Amino acid sequence: MHDDVRAQAPEVIPAPSLEVAGCGEVPSVLDALIRTVLSGATTFENADKMIKGLTKKFGVLTEGIGEGSIDWNNVRTSPIEDLVGAIRCGGLGNAKAKSIKGILDMVYQENIERREAYLREKQTGEQADVFAAADKTKGQKDLEILKTDKNILSLDHIHGLPADEAMRQFTKYPGVGVKTSACVILFCLQRPCFAVDTHVNKFSKWLGWAPEKATEDDVFSHLEVRCPDHLKYGLHQLFIRHGQTCEKCRRSTAEGTDSWRKLEECPLESLLNRYDKRQSKAKPKPPKKAKGEKPEAEPDVKKEEQEDGADTTGAKNGPAEDGMEAGDQVEEGSEAKEDDDIKKEGEA
What is the CATH number of the domain that holds 48? Predict the structure, then answer.
């Protein structure tokens, strides 16, 4: 049914797009992390608008190391108001700007510390006492020094780490939780990782792979161990595509609706228990009212339709956006409750 969806990650990660945010399938680890943060709790259209806004405001590295990436050091050194203005079009501008600024400041300090440690190593011959230094070659260390000298922020020293160690490194940054980290590990580091977005979460429960009341992080913790590594990339992509397009599996449909009846049978029908899509969720007929009495407002079964567009895959030249739950989507320009919303990823 979805034979155009990749079963395995591409051998070569594509160059970063300046029009599509994606969800981490870019060469630069820092670029991948911030793109994934931007893609959280919004639609792919809004995330794309943020990337365009950042490109226009802060520019792109056009040559040498880091070519093609947004100039994140320029973002770091600019007033936060400029960053908010560049990404406000996608919603949660204030909150995401705070997280991004916090990430970039931490990365800058780490890069300085790593550079100084490597320079001391050159002078004394004693191994640098920074994270993963023992696993780096002389050439890799020299490259880190060169990037810092050129004011190019980088997390590329995380390349090559096991998934569990990379997870610990990513989740120390503000606004970065398990979901965001798993996407970067899967799509940028190309390490097997069971990234759980909204669609992956619902199918895991409908298939009986995880308890109905499990949180997304619980689902991740369980299936990261139970799911075979060679299936993690493809299942993530397939669940998202199927969750967006199958009329019986989209969140906006329920038993008894017109959309439900359009599809005779879902290919997964015999395997799924859609316990939360029963008849009770379908749009009921309004009860008859006495003459002159105003009818009650009918429930809107399309309320959840926006969720199905929040997570996307190959059609937008990149993997799925960090999944959002129904009701998390923020309309353009809305900054309501931003400081609370951004905590969802960090507290995870």
Answer: 1.10.340.30
Range of the domain at 130: 29-193+332-347
- When divided into structural domains, the chain yields a total of 1
Residue type, 6: R
Q: What is the 3-state secondary structure (H, E, C) of the chain?
A: CCCCCCCCCCCCCCCCCCCCCCCCCCCCHHHHHHHHHHHCCCCHHHHHHHHHHHHHHHCECCCCCCCCCECHHHHHHCCHHHHHHHHHHHCCHHHHHHHHHHHHHHHHHHHHHHHHHHHHHHHHCCCCCCCCHHHCCHHHHHHHHHHHHCCCCCCHHHCCCCHHHHHHHHCCCCCCCHHHHHHHHHHCCCCCCCCCCHHHHHHHHHCCCCCCCCCHHHHHHHHHHHCCHHHHHHHHHHHHHHHHHCCCCCCCCCCCCHHHHHCCCCCCHHHCCCCCCCHHHCCCCCCCCCCCCCCCCCCCHHHHHHHHCCCCCHHHCCCCCCCCCCCCCCCCCCCCCHHHHCHHHHHC
**Residues 29 and 158: beta-carbon distance below 8 Å:** yes
Q: What is the pTM of this model?
A: 0.80
Tell me how far apart the alpha carbons of residues 253 and 192 are, in angstroms, rounded to a whole number: 32
Q: Percentage of the chain with pLDDT > 70?
A: 80
Distance spanning both ends of the chain, measured CA to CA: 34
Instruction: Give a yes or no: residue 95 inside a domain.
Output: yes
Give pLDDT tens digits for 90-132. 989 999 999 999 999 999 999 999 999 999 999 999 999 999 9
Neighbouring C-beta atoms of residue 55, cutoff 10 Å:
16
Question: What are 203-259's pLDDT values in tens digits?
Answer: 999 999 999 999 999 999 999 999 999 999 999 999 999 998 998 998 888 888 888
Residue 233 placed within a domain:
no
